[in-house]
Amino acid sequence: LLEREGEPTLLVTTRGFADQLRIGYQTRPDLFALDIRLPEMLYRDVLEVGERMDAHGNVIEPLDRDDAGKGLERHYSDGIRSVAIVLMHGYRYPGHELALGAMAESIGYTQVSVSHQVSPLMKYVPRGDTTVVDAYLSPVIRRYVDQVASELGGPEKQKGRLKFMRSNGGLADAGFFHGKDAILSGPAGGVVGMARVSEAAGFGEVIGFDMGGTSTDVSHYNGEFERSYETQVAGVRLRAPMMMIHTVAAGGGSVLHFDGSRFRVGPDSAGASPGPACYRNGGPLTITDCNVMTGKLQPDMFPRVFGERGDRPIDHQRVAVEFQALADRIHAETGDSRTPEEVAAGFLAVAVGNMSNAIKKISVQRGYDVTGYTLCCFGGAGGQHACMVADALGMNRILIHPFSGILSAYGMGLADTVVDRQRAVEQVLDASLVGELERAASELEGECGETLAFQVGGAGMADTVYRRVLHVRYAGSDTSFPVPLSSLDGIREQFEIVHRMRFGFVSPEKGLIVESVQVEAVSPARSDAMAGRGGQEKPRSSRDPVAIRRCYMDGEWRETPFFERESLSPGDGIEGPGVILDSTGTVVVEPGWRATLDGEDNLLIDRHVARKEAVAIGTDVDPVMLEVFNNLFMSIAEQMGSVLENTAVSVNIKERLDFSCAIFDPRGALVANAPHMPVHLGSMSESIKTVIRERAGDIRPGDVYILNAPYNGGTHLPDVTVIRPVFSQDGDILFFTASRGHHADIGGKSPGSAPADSTHIEEEGVIIDNVKLVEDGRFREQAMHDLLASGPWPARNPDMNIADFKAQLAACEKGARELLGMIARYGAKTVHAYMRHVQDNAEESVRRVLDVLNDGQFTYCMDDGHRIGVTIAVDRPARKAVIDFTGTSPQHPGNFNAPTAVVRAAVLYVFRCLVNDQIPLNEGCLKPLEIIIPENSMISPKHPAAVIAGNVETSQYLVDTLFGALGVVAAAQGTMNNFIWGNERIQYYETICGGAGATANRRGTDAVHTHMTNSRLTDPEVLEWR
What is the DSSP string of 920-976? Predict the structure, then answer.
């Protein structure tokens, strides 16, 4: 799948939908990349067939069998033997898909994957991708399965004995193993192994930490396996049950980078070839080399499998030379005089930060407090970093199984044999439906039992467990949750428990939709599959260390004993610093930790010396801590975004993700943001600065502010910003946190608050001009209702607006808590210093761009004769530039006026793109730039000018104008292509993608969102069903 070397595949789909999987949800993967690279499609050709069903099963166009048959024969003659059949609404009304499948089989196609059989659920895009993956990979998988069976004596001999791991964590007989099931089967084995060995050791709440050579997989377990039913792998959207695993590009082979200011790790990897520098194959410095440099990996205690002939030890000398050269370079460029071992330790700190932030995504961001959890470490490199990762997360206990280096393989041997079946329902939950669900579950149970009996035989069915699960969501939402099938009240009760835990609220007034019914038949693994190793007599060798070597740990060289795990007996304890060697891995016991071998040969590592909760690192810029703080600030903004997504009520914010979250310094300067909407990110600081300017001396603890006024820090009225000041104990403002969400309706003369013909701001909705959302800790709900009901065209759904205001407030509160936690750890002076340092780093990155830019000018002509003009003058000696919009047309009589905040956002976005490197988007990017905006122009409108198109159209013109002056990239489609419809009850909003312009390196990309927006497109089946 990664290398796109599957079977040549034909996609057969409804006429008019040939490009739907290519368009997908229209978002671009890298927000600031001008050379947009979209994943390569898996299918080789597409056959559109005449047929169409609507969302309720009515035939709009009957299947054109003759034309479809000719098309299938034509592609068969071209050599294609694998076909994926995906029709609109085929998940529920499969007649046309079945007919096409039968035709393909009769013609001779050897692999026929039909969408309603592969993934019988609504959502054309992920169901389509899953079906294509199945057709693309299944022939390859089948050849592999046949080869393995042949080596083991033939398929008949292995019937019921040869099983394969599936991505959902269950085993399947070789004959039932398909392409769609195989993609994450390796990591799934690790999760099963992690859960089983942890439970056997007495730990029920566990974080899995699987660190290998190229990446780290993290997972969460607290008694039940967590599965994701929509996953993206290698650019392919999959709608099939898979273990919930989060992957971060930080492994032993992750490459070390110094960019002149900060230490960075990955995302690129040295791989197995050339591998790390120590492999004697000309590879770059990596995380593995850091552990060699710090003495944690010793050449004489490592296998001699390196070099040209594969018979030499790892090369410590080359590692030392490379780190010395890097230390010299760092000193020359920054004046920082750290030693080679300090450089290595610095990169380890950055990698540990990346991995701990990944763990927060699957735990803390979902409401779990991991400080009481056990960290179960496995993978080849997991044990080397276990203590440092646990310290970063505040965890106090680590479990390392004797098979930790091969736990994914071991986990496969501990897995149950599982058969699951799903059936789409998509009906409102009521008493009459419960009976239908019971009947459907019974039918699925019969299918599962029959298939399972074939795989495990009669004896294997004795302990079979059946699980009946519904996937349920609120009406109007796309987010479903699995709940057990029970009574009507029981289903709602269980759903609300899960919904409240995940999102923090329930909506009892809303109806529930049953998306699908699922049955799982589980034949448990043999009871002796995990025979313990305890009680086995093993030769008692000396517990003395095999060597004592100097290792650099916790900021100093320490005499460190090295032990062989085989020499330890139950009860033996090792206080850090120490290193324990095993046949499949190395375990580093850091100072302050104690490792003990239990009766089952597990290593239990506990924090026996309290960690320092406050860390003194000073206020001078440090290349390591600069990257650490960059990532911390970014992580906080991402956690804010996660809270907003989880707690929002509207589809627009919760599922289309039309929102942004960011943190700001006491002056209102942007410090960090999550990668959300560019048009929001560069303009939000104006909102904060408005509050600071207008409420000078009157910003108090317990108060939170809200605004959308375009002439006073806002952009257009649907974009509402919530701003929370964060105070010290002495009452000083430390930071601001803010969240901006696009509300589907904020009033105005047309639903959706985007009238095409508005000429006055009040026609576009309710103006919120820097008012208190929260006063003295109390949410001003009635005041908000009154405000939303004001004006000539009040908001149509104020309850939803207020619910989303509360979600935005929750996001700001999350950011405030995390920032205060950072201050408790590092101190206010240090945190504020690094707020400046990260902005200085971004400033320097833009100044480097200015060193190679030329002057330019450009005039953008709009359809109605208005113009946007810009002249860019670069002062290279001073390393700054003037961006002068003089020549832009006067204020527009219609609604194409763009507030100055939008202009700043466009400039910030353009120069952030030019940096072409992984730097945070913050206020520092604007420091070398002077922006001149003519008064009373269409980019500095005055009240009561209409502005709705300024945010969504003129913002795109501005970006194309700037890039035109710089000669960097050809124009994009120049619009966000807003399509808005609705009435007093329902308001709906889509932005539609277009084309991206070419650069010197790459042709333009079609059918993708560009520049100032990146919102998701609603799936066509969901849209029609609603």
Answer: --SGGGGTTEEEE--TTBTTS--TT---HHIIIIIHHHHHHHHHHHHTSB-----S-
Amino acid in position 283: G
The answer to whether the beta carbons of residues 158 and 152 sit under 8 Å apart is: yes
Q: What is the DSSP string of 710-739?
A: TTTT-SSTTEEEEEEEEE-TTS-EEEEEEE
Residue 763 amino acid letter: E
> Residues with Cβ < 8 Å from 397, sequence gap 6 or more?
203, 373, 374, 375, 390, 604, 605, 606, 607
Q: To the nearest 10°, report the CA torsion of 325, 327, 333, 337.
A: -140
Cis peptide leading into residue 944 (ω within 30°): yes
- What single DSSP character describes residue 364? G
SS3 breakdown of the chain: % helix, strand, coil, rounded to 5? 35, 25, 40
Residues 805, 706 contacting (CB under 8 angstroms): yes
**Reduced 3-state DSSP string for 64-92:** CHHHHHHHHHHHHHCCCCEEEEECCCCCC
Name which of 208-212, 333-337, 652-656, 862-866 the model is least confident about.
652-656
**Would you say domain 418-523 falls under CATH 3.40.190?**
no
**Could you give the dihedral angle defined by the CA atoms of residues 786, 788, 793 and 799, in that order, rounded to the nearest 10 degrees?**
-110
Cα 715 from Cα 681, distance rounded (Å): 11
Euclidean distance between CA atoms 549 and 561, whole angstroms: 6
Residue type, 71: G
> In the chain, which segments carry CATH 3.30.1490?
418-523
Q: To which H or E segment does residue 438 belong?
A: helix 431-460
Q: Which of 106, 12, 108, 84 is nearest to 51 (CA)?
A: 12
Closest to 7 in 3D by CA, of 45, 63, 53: 45
- Write phi, then psi, for 535 (nearest 5 degrees): 80, -10
β partners of residue 531 = none
Which backbone phi and psi does 713 adopt, to 5 degrees? 100, -5
Q: Is 750 left (phi over 0), alpha (psi -120 to 50) or beta?
A: beta
Q: How far apart are CA 552 and CA 489, in angstroms?
A: 60
- CATH architecture group of domain 185-246+353-413: 2-Layer Sandwich (3.30)
Residue 538 burial (10 A CB sphere; 0-12, 13-18, 19+):
exposed
d(CA 972, CA 955): 12
CA distance 455 to 457: 6
User: Could you tell me where in the chain the CATH 3.30.420 domains are found?
Assistant: 185-246+353-413
3-state class (DSSP) for residue 1014: coil
Within 13 Å, how many C-alpha atoms sit on residue 934's CB side? Answer: 17
pLDDT tens digits along 640-649: 988 888 778 7
Query: pLDDT-based confidence at 535, cuts 50/70/90?
Result: very low
Which positions ≥6 away from 537 have C-beta within 8 Å? Answer: none
pLDDT tens, position by position, 687-704 = 999 999 999 889 999 999
Residue carrying structure tokens 């990668």: 675
pLDDT digits (tens, 9 = 90+) for 835-852: 999 899 889 889 988 988
Q: Strands 573-575 and 547-553, how do they pair? A: unpaired
